[in-house]
Amino acid sequence: MAAIFARRGFAITELNRRQAELPESCTGIPNKLGTARGMWFEKDRRPGSKTIFVAMPGVPFEMKAMMTDQVIPRLKQSFNTPFIYHHTILTQGIGESFLAAQIADWENQLPGNIKLAYLPQPGIVRLRLTGTGNEELLLHQQIDKEVLKLERIIPETYFWLQ
Predict the structure, then answer these.
(1) Which CA distances in Å does 138 have to 59, 113, 116, 129, 132?
(2) How far lies 112's CA from each of 22, 106, 127, in Å?
(3) CA torsion through residues 140, 142, 145, 149, sign
(4) How far apart are CA 115 and CA 128, in angstroms?
(5) What is the mean pLDDT of each run of 10 residues along the chain (162 residues)?
(6) pLDDT at 87
(7) By three-state DSSP, how is residue 149 classified?
(8) Contact at 8 Å (CB) between 125 and 99?
(9) DSSP state of 13
(10) pLDDT for 66
């Protein structure tokens, strides 16, 4: 924090000093865009199980940068997390219930790691495929294969690929 204030030509106030304080039970998360650090609390509950709490500053652009650059990478190191991939398909000119009836067999045959969500709006129905898996490239290929199957079912006049 002292370096940030020195670069800007400001003196550190008591309020600024208090922003830098952290409880003993946490690790600080540096904030490259501001003065308030984040806090990482970690507790091992039992062998192989831990709980992590993260507290972040409320300034959105600071919090987002810290989340992207530091928190998410640390969480990925702490936990074996699968990849999540979303693919959205837009349809137009066909109602949700008619579309659901038309693709029911395809939907029922989706692999267990791929879920389908219907997201209707006036005039369109978005279909969102969400897949989870341990291998990112394989997951993308798997969803691309399902989209190709779907293209053969939905008439071209109703189908937009996104």
Answers:
(1) 37, 12, 18, 15, 10
(2) 44, 13, 17
(3) negative
(4) 8
(5) 80 83 91 88 84 92 95 90 93 92 96 97 94 95 96 79 63
(6) 96
(7) helix
(8) yes
(9) P
(10) 96
Q: What per-residue confidence (pLDDT) applies to 138?
A: 96
140 membership: H or E segment, kind and range: helix 136-153
Predicted TM-score (pTM) above 0.85: no
Residues near 91 by Cβ (< 8 Å), separated by ≥ 6? 99, 124, 125, 126, 127, 154, 158, 159, 160
- Please report the sign of the dihedral spanned by the C-alpha atoms of residue 12, residue 14, residue 15, residue 16: positive
Confidence (pLDDT) at 162: 64
Read off the tokens for 122.
């006036």
Bridge partners (DSSP) listed for residue 151 = none
